[in-house]
Amino acid sequence: MITLTNIGKTFPGTRRRPAVTALDDVSLTVERGQVMGVVGPSGSGKSTLARIVNLLERPTRGTVTVDGVELTALSAGQLNSARRGIGMIFQQFNLLDSRTALANVELPLELAGVGRAERRARATELLQRVGLGDKLGSHPAQLSGGQRQRVAIARALAPRPRVLLCDEATSALDPVSTASVLTLLRDLTDELDLTTVLITHEMDVVKRACDHVTLLEAGRVVDAGALSDVVRRPLSPLATRLLPHPQAPVGEPVVEVTVGGAGHDAVLTELIRRYDVQVAVVAGSVETLGDQRFGRLQLRLDGAPEQVRPALEFLAAADPGGRDPGSEDTHDLDDRALRALEEAVA
């Protein structure tokens, strides 16, 4: 649905300030129906990337393709038409204070020449969908921050876009409103078959709402993938940010495993069934990533050396990262193991 290929963006310098390269050879793909989180520190190029997706900012080099159309090859008139398929939500809401919630949502339809009755019906439907059916006549000053962002979401959806870009959309909200808005965005993505990109500096936003994530640093992609894959990569810069490593007691000989997600082998269950060893949970942590639970366990295997060694070799063979037995191995375990972990660390 969205493909950025070898994107570079350099802002020219002045006499007082040198040129700045905001993005450097960035390539990424967001498939239809995905919620992609783009994270990184301030100055990493996140917001520039968001504006390049709909060409509010034109790249210095590279191509942008959305829904099969190469936006970077369009004329100004063609680009204006293509942008109707891309909704955008900002941190500061950008609502018109003089207009009611209903009139704010109607605005993009009004600018597109949609008739009064049709745009009124569409705006009413959307405000009801975002939980503001009783606020049609309220002005922004009469609404909370979370309610104003819901109006902004309804407005972005009014032209029936296929893509939704959210640039720090929850940064100005309190935790309760943030959780509510993220749930709404996730639900709308699924219901309306949207492709959603969330630009954020907060890992909690990624954990709550995203199924894929891209990490930018200094204008370059340094890590990317599905959350369920990223947390299992031993050397992933994102893995420990999404799922922290537990701290075992100093000197405790442990093997570390990652549990959770769908469709993975029940390695721990098979370990206990096959080998005559005692398995103890020494430490662990649990996170909900998207709609799946994941955890990291640090296990101690007790038994005679001739029993423990084959068990460690089994774990090493099952490790998708191919790491040495006895080190911080990463494995796929079943949901029963995750429930045991949650009880152990409760």
Task: Explain what this protein looks like in three dimensions.
By secondary structure, the protein is an alpha/beta fold. It has two domains: 2-230, 3-Layer(aba) Sandwich (Rossmann fold); 243-345, 2-Layer Sandwich (Alpha-Beta Plaits). The chain has twelve helices and 13 strands. The chain has a six-stranded mixed β-sheet, with helices on both faces. Residues 319-334 have low confidence and may be disordered.
Set out the fold topology.
Blueprint: E1 2-11, E2 20-30, E3 35-39, H1 46-53, E4 61-66, E5 69-70, H2 76-82, E6 86-90, H3 101-111, H4 116-129, H5 145-157, E7 163-167, H6 175-192, E8 195-200, H7 203-209, E9 212-217, E10 220-226, H8 227-230, H9 239-242, E11 255-260, H10 267-274, E12 278-289, E13 292-302, H11 305-318, H12 335-345
Parallel strand pairs: 3-8, 3-9, 6-7, 7-8
Antiparallel strand pairs: 1-2, 1-4, 4-5, 9-10, 11-13, 12-13
Helix pairs in contact: 3-4, 3-5, 4-5, 5-6
Organism: Ornithinimicrobium pekingense
Domain ABC transporter: 2-243
Keywords: Amino-acid transport, ATP-binding, Cell membrane, Membrane, Nucleotide-binding, Translocase, Transport
Give me some keywords for this one:
6-stranded mixed beta sheet; Alpha-Beta Plaits; alpha/beta; single chain; Rossmann fold; 4-stranded antiparallel beta sheet; 2 domains; 346 residues; 12 helices
Instruction: Based on the coordinates given, report the CATH architecture of the largest domain.
Output: 3-Layer(aba) Sandwich
Number of strands: 13
Give the count of structural domains: 2
Order of SSEs = EEEHEEHEHHHEHEHEEHHEHEEHH
Fraction in beta strands: 25-35%
- Name of the level-1 CATH class of the largest domain: Alpha Beta
Predict the CATH topology of the largest domain: Rossmann fold
The overall pLDDT average reads 85
CATH superfamily of the largest domain: P-loop containing nucleotide triphosphate hydrolases
User: Main beta sheet: strand number and arrangement?
Assistant: 6 strands, mixed
Q: Given the helix and strand composition, which structural class is it? A: alpha/beta
Q: Which value, in Å, is the CA radius of gyration?
A: 24 Å
SS field, number of helical segments:
12
Helical coverage, percent range: 25-40%
How far apart, in Å, are the first and last alpha carbons? 41 Å
**Taking strands numbered 1, 2, ... along the chain, how are they ordered across the largest sheet?**
6-7-8-3-9-10
The coarse silhouette is globular
Q: Extract low-pLDDT stretches.
A: 319-334
